[in-house]
Amino acid sequence: MSKRTWIFFFATLLFIGLASTCREGKSDNGDRPEAGVVLTLDSLVKRVAIRSSTMGQIFNAHVILPESYYLDTTPLFYPVVYLLHGYGGHFDDWFSRVPELVDYATSYNYIIVTPEGLTNSWYFDSPLDSNSTFRTYISQDVPAYIDDFFRTKPGPQSRAITGLSMGGHGALSIGLRHPEWFGAAGSMSGVLYLPDVVGQFELEKHLGDPVADSLRWQGYSVLNLIDSVRTVPQLIIDCGTDDFLIQANRRVHDTLLVRNFPHTYIERPGGHAWNYWSEAVAYQLQYFARYFGNGR
After folding, report:
1. Which residues contact 114 (CB under 8 A, 6 or more apart)?
2. pTM over cut 0.90
3. 73 falls in which pLDDT band (50, 70, 90)?
4. What is the C-alpha to C-alpha distance for residues 103 and 121, in angstroms, rounded to an integer?
5. CA-to-CA distance for 216 and 127, rounded, in angstroms?
6. How close are the terminal C-alpha atoms of the chain, in Å?
7. What is the pLDDT of residues 84-102, one digit of tens each?
8. Which is the CATH superfamily of the domain at 3-292?
């Protein structure tokens, strides 16, 4: 870990302690910040406030810039990777757990964004809760804001999205549904077949009764979405062999093979835990760098 990463790691821990009231889009004093507010944690790390066009709320995100963002005499424009957190988490989880993200952004010369998905949004536009439209927020509002406020390259060829667990479900769902926004998508230990987790993770509030509404549960699952699309973005899927979700991930892999959709599939020893995801994200960020043409 570089000196810069260690400095950012401790700064992040301090920030989290000071900003415990800032979760779910709240500012330090408990009030909602104005959309567009940019707070600087480090010269290359920003906390931004992004308004949802459909929920009428403002949520936080972290933005990590590569060192070249300010160093080059001729301003450059950058690809963006959107990194989604898991169930029970928040936008700052990735930074507190994987401070090396600061180094990855510089090594691969692109921007990394970690938006808020609340503890249990599942990144749905919920058919039962009109106040939970996080698919629209993540696929439209967040990229539009990032493109407005930062020097980004336009088009799906310059955007990728991935996440862990709930975020893996969200990233693949959004990538499959919105190829006009994201040219590449990934998942780490993703919940890719929702009926497998009935009774867990508060999915019923979004999808209804798992028996009476079983078709809805299946229709919102990545496994079934694959059968409803004609093309897919560039895909990378990673799951540990000891993960309770491994069978669904294997089924997604098999379905992609049957449909002759190109993808990268990885299985490694490990479970549903941060020590696995901290390694998985390194593979995925390298994969996206190659997709963008910035691999080294």
Report:
1. 61, 62, 82, 83, 84, 85, 91, 92, 93, 94, 95
2. no
3. confident
4. 29
5. 9
6. 18
7. 999 999 999 999 999 999 9
8. Alpha/Beta hydrolase fold, catalytic domain (3.40.50.1820)
